[in-house]
Amino acid sequence: MEILLQVIVTGLATGGLYGLIALGFVLIYKATSVLNLAMGEFMTLGAFVCFTVLTQIKAPFYLALILTLVAAILLGFIVERLILRPLIGEPIISAIMVTIGLGVILKGLIYMVWTPTFRNFPEIFPPKPLNLGFAVVPSGLWWGFFFAIIGMLIFLLIFKFSRTGVAMRAVASDQQAALSMGISVRWVFALAWCFGAMASVIGGIVIGNISGISVYMGDIGLKVLAVIILGGLDSIGGAILGGFIIGILENLTGLYIDPLIGGGAKNVAPFFMLVFILMIRPYGLFGKKIIERV
């Protein structure tokens, strides 16, 4: 029983980290209806920028975090302005395919600038684990969970109570109606990409602190697709809840199924969940159900 509780608690902490990265997907999709498949590379780039500031400039972590978030805002703004804005009015699949190409370009740039060498991230969080009595949560996972919850609360407050959030919700609901009310749809699109980039780079920093950084760390973005589809592509709370479910599912699969088949099931469990959800509830647990008449 103690092992099961430990696995569940660790799964919740891991799921919080997945949910943090999923926020980046959801924030962009919620306002623009574009699924950014380059999010993993956004995350990787943020981790490397923070790593460089910490190791080369010798800046304290708080300053490295601020500079990394500024870089994320610039990245989101440039991508939206130069790459996605010309595609406004084009089929959504065109924008999605462009994000795939963008991901390949960013991975290539990261490869050229930082090389494929694996690097250990400087210690940025207190190493002491969180002892709950019935389970112990490693420091990196605990801080990832903390950032996920804080990020979710911040973005929920922005969407629910700020003028910016009202504008983003209006654009997400009906772009033509938002335009008629004087809301700048292009400005909202740029803001959504900046928010999404910020969420993803924070996730990259936390993952880098846990397991180090490399050019290929962005592959976790594919796993996060299962999270956002489970929770709902346009649901901030659903992204966090989906992360918790996928994190627990992974750990339980590793505990009970991997020993029976020699391993590997833990890595594919999220994709089995992805297929299952698409078959049963394609709009996710909290996603907006859209009915089209043809």
Q: How are the elements arranged and paired?
A:
Elements: H1 2-32, H2 39-57, H3 61-84, H4 92-114, E1 130-131, E2 136-137, H5 139-161, H6 163-173, H7 175-180, H8 185-211, H9 220-231, H10 236-256, H11 258-261, H12 265-280
Antiparallel strand pairs: 1-2
Helix pairs in contact: 1-5, 1-8, 1-9, 1-10, 2-3, 2-4, 2-8, 3-8, 5-6, 5-8, 6-8, 9-10, 9-12, 10-12
Account of the protein in words:
Helix content is 74%, strand content 1%. It has 294 residues and is mainly α. The protein has one domain: ABC transporter involved in vitamin B12 uptake, BtuC (Orthogonal Bundle), CATH 1.10.3470. Strands 1-2 form a two-stranded antiparallel ribbon. α1 packs parallel to α5 and α1 runs antiparallel to α10. The radius of gyration is 19 Å and the shape is globular. It starts with a helix and ends in a 14-residue tail after the last helix.
